[in-house]
Amino acid sequence: MIKDKLQRPLHDLRISVTDKCNFRCQYCMPAEIFGPDFKFLNKNEILSFEEIERVAGIFSELGVKKLRITGGEPLMRKDVAKLIGRLLQIKGIEDIGLTTNGVLLVKYAQDLYNAGLRRLNISLDALNNDIFQKMNGRGVKSEIVLKGIEAALKTGFSIKVNMVVQKGVNDTEIIPMAEHFRKMGVTLRFIEFMDVGNSNGWNWDQVVSKKDIFEMLSKHFTLEPVDPDYFGEVAKRYKYKDSEAEIGFITSVSESFCSTCTRARISADGKFYTCLFAGKGHDLRSLLRNCDDDKQVHTQIADIWQNRKDRYSDERVEGATTSLNKNKIEMSYIGG
Ligand code: SAM
Ligand code: SF4
Ligand code: SF4
């Protein structure tokens, strides 16, 4: 097992399989910036399935046990189910999850399940269509995502729904969403709006903190804390007293968790990022394409991890603004 400079092991790898998306969420890929002229990656710039499989295999030798497939919208990458089937064969990989906006789930849930995938995180920011259609920037109704959720549940998937909360945008949806998914027995996780990338116009005033959300929920529900399942579990979890359903909070802004961050990330074009807020990635694609020797790739990845010192969110909480002004990669490029 390798550890970074802050003694954090490498456990998880998030792989972005495309930078394209069928939504234009204002907080992630605002339509004004990601418009018709935006230059997305070309096919030859994106890692092939063989390259992804190879690099995931090397990461697993270095201690990675969990993979997450993300994007952009990962279900827009052709044959992603086949890729998942292949990744599940890698020795040492115990678990794969996929994060999706849910729009294409009715079409692909069964293929994904047949490939061996069992866990899905589905993003849905509102039930109310005036709010949701504006937020997703493509006028897609919440019913489409809800149908995707239903299809996935019917297929047999274990599901978590993720809701990014933005003040004045969808905070009125906190209670309706909690009520809806409590009744369905599905875990809902509230994600604090983060200052990822440079294009979503983030500021502190738009963040609804875990504390605020918890206070709102407490007026309607009785919640009991649930212990973390494993070291580095990101969500702070609670259970409803009268139901088995859980809620969770991803508190990247108000209560950062860098000290237990065991995640590596690879962008669709094969850059290795040691932090969601990193300004620069390490080019694994050239390495993979120019070097047949897995040992060399292994050594370089190990080196990068062993020199890792990132703790961006902790620094934000501490008010160390110098590190906060740098150029950051966009969320749609790295996949969250
Ligand atoms: N397209 C897929 C989806 O939306 O689920 C996968 C990629 S998306 C970048 C992964 C997750 O990041 C989504 O749950 C999304 O809501 C979240 N996200 C994107 N931008 C964010 C931001 N600025 N703050 C917090 N979460 C964000
Ligand atoms: Fe697309 Fe997901 Fe970003 Fe929304 S959050 S624009 S669905 S990548
Ligand atoms: Fe990990 Fe970087 Fe997020 Fe901290 S800010 S938890 S180091 S990804």
From TrEMBL:
<feature type="binding site">
    <location>
        <begin position="263"/>
        <end position="265"/>
    </location>
    <ligand>
        <name>GTP</name>
    </ligand>
</feature>
<dbReference type="InterPro" id="IPR010505">
    <property type="entry name" value="MoaA_twitch"/>
</dbReference>
<keyword id="KW-0004">4Fe-4S</keyword>
<comment type="similarity">
    <text>Belongs to the radical SAM superfamily. MoaA family.</text>
</comment>
<feature type="binding site">
    <location>
        <position position="160"/>
    </location>
    <ligand>
        <name>GTP</name>
    </ligand>
</feature>
<dbReference type="GO" id="GO:0061798">
    <property type="term" value="F:GTP 3',8'-cyclase activity"/>
</dbReference>
<keyword id="KW-0342">GTP-binding</keyword>
<dbReference type="InterPro" id="IPR040064">
    <property type="entry name" value="MoaA-like"/>
</dbReference>
<comment type="subunit">
    <text>Monomer and homodimer.</text>
</comment>
<feature type="binding site">
    <location>
        <position position="72"/>
    </location>
    <ligand>
        <name>S-adenosyl-L-methionine</name>
    </ligand>
</feature>
<dbReference type="InterPro" id="IPR050105">
    <property type="entry name" value="MoCo_biosynth_MoaA/MoaC"/>
</dbReference>
<feature type="binding site">
    <location>
        <position position="28"/>
    </location>
    <ligand>
        <name>[4Fe-4S] cluster 1</name>
    </ligand>
</feature>
<feature type="binding site">
    <location>
        <position position="275"/>
    </location>
    <ligand>
        <name>[4Fe-4S] cluster 2</name>
    </ligand>
</feature>
<feature type="binding site">
    <location>
        <position position="27"/>
    </location>
    <ligand>
        <name>S-adenosyl-L-methionine</name>
    </ligand>
</feature>
<keyword id="KW-0479">Metal-binding</keyword>
<dbReference type="InterPro" id="IPR058240">
    <property type="entry name" value="rSAM_sf"/>
</dbReference>
<keyword id="KW-0501">Molybdenum cofactor biosynthesis</keyword>
<protein>
    <recommendedName>
        <fullName>GTP 3',8-cyclase</fullName>
        <ecNumber>4.1.99.22</ecNumber>
    </recommendedName>
</protein>
<feature type="binding site">
    <location>
        <position position="68"/>
    </location>
    <ligand>
        <name>GTP</name>
    </ligand>
</feature>
<dbReference type="InterPro" id="IPR000385">
    <property type="entry name" value="MoaA_NifB_PqqE_Fe-S-bd_CS"/>
</dbReference>
<keyword id="KW-0408">Iron</keyword>
<feature type="binding site">
    <location>
        <position position="123"/>
    </location>
    <ligand>
        <name>S-adenosyl-L-methionine</name>
    </ligand>
</feature>
<feature type="binding site">
    <location>
        <position position="194"/>
    </location>
    <ligand>
        <name>S-adenosyl-L-methionine</name>
    </ligand>
</feature>
<feature type="binding site">
    <location>
        <position position="99"/>
    </location>
    <ligand>
        <name>GTP</name>
    </ligand>
</feature>
<dbReference type="InterPro" id="IPR006638">
    <property type="entry name" value="Elp3/MiaA/NifB-like_rSAM"/>
</dbReference>
<keyword id="KW-0411">Iron-sulfur</keyword>
<keyword id="KW-0456">Lyase</keyword>
<dbReference type="GO" id="GO:1904047">
    <property type="term" value="F:S-adenosyl-L-methionine binding"/>
</dbReference>
<dbReference type="GO" id="GO:0051539">
    <property type="term" value="F:4 iron, 4 sulfur cluster binding"/>
</dbReference>
<dbReference type="Pfam" id="PF04055">
    <property type="entry name" value="Radical_SAM"/>
</dbReference>
<keyword id="KW-0547">Nucleotide-binding</keyword>
<dbReference type="GO" id="GO:0061799">
    <property type="term" value="F:cyclic pyranopterin monophosphate synthase activity"/>
</dbReference>
<dbReference type="InterPro" id="IPR007197">
    <property type="entry name" value="rSAM"/>
</dbReference>
<dbReference type="InterPro" id="IPR013483">
    <property type="entry name" value="MoaA"/>
</dbReference>
<comment type="function">
    <text>Catalyzes the cyclization of GTP to (8S)-3',8-cyclo-7,8-dihydroguanosine 5'-triphosphate.</text>
</comment>
<dbReference type="GO" id="GO:0005525">
    <property type="term" value="F:GTP binding"/>
</dbReference>
<dbReference type="GO" id="GO:0046872">
    <property type="term" value="F:metal ion binding"/>
</dbReference>
<feature type="binding site">
    <location>
        <position position="258"/>
    </location>
    <ligand>
        <name>[4Fe-4S] cluster 2</name>
    </ligand>
</feature>
<feature type="binding site">
    <location>
        <position position="14"/>
    </location>
    <ligand>
        <name>GTP</name>
    </ligand>
</feature>
<feature type="binding site">
    <location>
        <position position="261"/>
    </location>
    <ligand>
        <name>[4Fe-4S] cluster 2</name>
    </ligand>
</feature>
<comment type="pathway">
    <text>Cofactor biosynthesis; molybdopterin biosynthesis.</text>
</comment>
<dbReference type="InterPro" id="IPR013785">
    <property type="entry name" value="Aldolase_TIM"/>
</dbReference>
